[in-house]
Structure formats: C-alpha cells, structure tokens
Specification:
By secondary structure, the protein is an alpha/beta fold. The strands form two sheets. It has a five-stranded parallel sheet, sandwiched between helices. The chain has a two-stranded antiparallel ribbon with strand order 3-4. The chain is built from four helices and seven strands, in the order E-H-E-E-E-H-H-E-H-E-E. Helix content is 26%, strand content 15%. The longest helix has 15 residues, at 60-74.
C-alpha cells in the first residue's frame, strides 16, 4: 500500500498521516510504502494572495505518485508484493492525490525516462480519506472535480469525506 500524507500540497504531514499509517499497516501484515512527494504547490492548493484555489504550474505530486506506483509494480516480485494488489491510501491533499493517480493513469504526467515508466501506474484500488480539492473546477455544489475523470475503468475506491474538507 502506497501512503500519501496530507499537508495541503504545501508541506507533508509525514508522521501522523505517513509513518504512523505505515507502522499500523505493518502491524496487520500489509506492506506500507510512504511516498514523500514534492511540495510546495505540487497539486491544487490554496493561495493566500488571491484567497483562491490554484492549479500547480507542473503536477509534480501526480508525477511522483505515477512513478511510485510504476516503481512498486516493476519491483513487485523482488519485494514479494502481489502486482495485482497495489493500492494507494491518502489523507486530505494526499487523498486528492489518490483520486488523481487513480483517474489520471492513462498517460504519464512526465516524459518517460526508463523501463519503469512503461509499467502501468494505475493502482488496483484506492482509499481516499477526507480528500481535499474534490469540488475544485466545478460549477455546482457536490459536483466532482472535472480534473478527476472517473469512468468504468477507474479502480475501486473507498472515499471518506467530511463536509468541511471538500
């Protein structure tokens, strides 16, 4: 299970939503791999200057997540991981990153550089805990972010959402 900590795409809550989650996963027999994706402003984020949400100039967090899924899948045999059971779990901004990599897997957000980038970066399932930015790029209340193209090929997803973290 790849774990994406939150932090609003400005920092990483690496302990509470990262290493502690990996330790818990290990305690129940699940391999937890913590992704320290690039920040700040590497995904949709709040900007104080305009008091608004902004898209990243480059989707660095998505690039890191795509690469991480491909890396785990390409090393699955060596790491004794079932390549058909590679999941992603994230919290707040990390929850958004779960939705992002789970819906934007068809094309890498970066130029392919080696054989790992030829391996699928589509997770087999996702767990998005109180994901942020889910209503960014929308016109109506409770509409899903248009940058997250959910379709019949989107992997199964458990979504835990609170009314104050959308």
């Amino acid at each position: 299970m790849l774990v994406f900590p939150g932090g609003g795409y400005t920092k990483l809550a690496i302990d509470l939503e990262g290493s502690e989650i990996c330790e818990w996963l290990a305690s129940i027999g699940v391999t937890g791999i913590l992704l320290k994706y690039r920040v700040p402003e590497s995904g949709p984020h709040y900007n104080k200057e305009c008091d608004c949400e902004k898209d990243p100039i480059k989707p660095l967090a998505l690039q890191d997540a795509q690469r991480a899924v491909g890396l785990v899948r390409s090393n699955a045999k060596e790491w004794k991981i079932d390549p058909t059971k590679i999941g992603v779990m994230g919290f707040s901004a990390g929850g958004h990153l779960v939705a992002d990599v789970s819906t934007n897997y068809r094309k890498r957000a970066y130029l392919e550089s080696d054989e790992i980038d030829k391996v699928s970066c589509k997770p087999n399932f996702g767990i998005a805990m109180y994901p942020g930015h889910m209503t960014f790029h929308t016109d109506k209340p409770y509409e899903l972010n248009k940058m997250l193209p959910v379709d019949s090929n989107t992997p199964p997803m458990f979504l835990l959402q609170a009314g104050n973290d959308i």
